[in-house]
Amino acid sequence: MAWGLPVNPGRGLWRDTGQHVLDGKAGPHAMVPSMTAPPAGARAAGAAPDRAVGECDADLVARSLDDPEAFAALFDRYAAMLYRYVSRRLGPESAEDVVGDTFLAAFSKRHRYDQAHRDARPWLFGIVTKLVSRHHRSEAARYRALRRSPVDGPQEGPAERVEAGVTATAVRPLLAEALAKLSRRDLDVLLLFAWGDLTYEEVAQALGIPVGTVRSRLNRARRKVRATLGDTNPMREEA
Amino acid sequence: MDDLELLRGLGRELEHEPPGSLVRQRGRLEDAPRRRGRGHRPPGRWPLLGAVAAVTAALVLVPAALLHAGDPRVGRTAHPFAPGSEKPLNVLLLGSDTRAEGGRSDTIVLLHLPADRKGARVVSVPRDLLVRIKACKTPKGTLTLSREVPINAAFALGGADCARETVESVTSVEVDTTVVIDFAGFRGMVDALGGVEVTLPEPIRDPKSGTALLPGRQRLDGRRALAYVRVRYGVGDGSDLSRIGRQQRFLAAMARRAKAVQAGSPLRFAKFVAIASGSVSTRPRMDVGAMEALFRSLGRTEPDAVAFNTLPVRMAASDPNRITIDAAGAQRLLTPFRED
Fold first, then answer.
1. What are the pLDDT digits (tens) for A140-153?
2. Residue A180 lies in a domain
3. FRET partner for B313 with CA separation of 20 to 30 A, picked from A39, A65, A209, B31?
4. Complex prediction ipTM
5. Residues A128 and A160 in one domain
6. How many degrees, rounded to 5, is the angle at CA A25 between CA A22 and CA A31?
């Protein structure tokens, strides 16, 4: 189950593994080049982000209790990844604010971070999920709209990515239909797993529910998706 | 290919790459961590003013389709900012409690417009940045001493020209125009726009102006907007850097609002422009014709193409509670201000 791996570089959301949130491909609203440099305030008082290299997330959170600026390194690690995830669910308009709100909320809760978890992604995804749920109606409307209107597919990228995109395009209306009909709980689990690249355990941790519940919700969600795809899906024959 | 693979394909189709503006969200975060440090100022009169942000929006980001569509005060003479003869421009924006001499410049912003006007760069200067001010002439004709003071003292001691000289010597950026705005002008401009919408992550209480703002998305009128950009206590960590973040966010929101107003309600926009041009003083004096040309040249500037930054600072050697310029970082950040 390759998709069960926590990190799937080059294919999943987490393509930025370095320090810079905004390097790599620029979005349609790309700014003048200097925007790729982190804001200057971060450089103050010797809290250089370079120090964060090699520190695990839990260490960063712990250090941020005394040296709050260490927390900005978490932003550098995960903001782009979270943005991609939220942009899938809510579109680019809300994604930026949701990501910003996520880190503010995370920062204010950092005292309660469980140091046993070296990887902060489940924690952050949990916060993102709560914030995304405030937009549940527009998310559902987004999926409903997808049942009809075309989306801009990936225009470039590795061949296999484009190919997968083409396949998904063919069944997109049905998938969107299925997503629009899922309950919020099932949807959260399904998308954290499929789009967030979290494992069962990580989804459980993110949502604060038992792993068994993750399994049952995921199974139910997938069953519904498959039912909606039905026998009309030609891809299933080839699978 | 199973349902999960199809779903992943859909996800990739729906995905967007993070825009450059995402860095603003990092700025929001950076507001939060500065919970300790900077010494507190005693309460003062209108200590903070995001007016500069507003002026930037007014003068810089708003295309002035309306200005040349019948405002009788608009001159028709040629000037250095006329279309076709555009040159890069560095503007120093000072927000002050009063436009009269002796006021405090509590907001200090450097703004750079490249010759093509396609984008803009805004660099906020922390007002308590420790600098050595040059001896400069006060309005009364006497000379101030060269000494180490917070940068906002330059305006209080020697007025706008002294502030400009000090900023120029600290940053090595040549300033073409200095703009001063007071808080009343700021308030009027926000009201003229019919308010500006912002999202507050937490409530803001400003006991000094008796203003309380609830969290969430809302439209601020001039009075509330002033509280939002100037309050230092009762929100975040109470630091100047946290306020700068708020001012920059407000600027971005105001620029968007101005653009929307221009598109949607021409009358309101005309009023806004009139109030904006009456709310600021510029040095060297920019007449309405020059202002109009500047507006027009900025028709191409999209609010989203504005880069916001804060001048890099570090702990001052002489006093760990003070900050001083991080020369190497500032050098890098300000490079575009020196070229063209």
1. 999 988 887 555 54
2. yes
3. A65
4. 0.74
5. no
6. 60
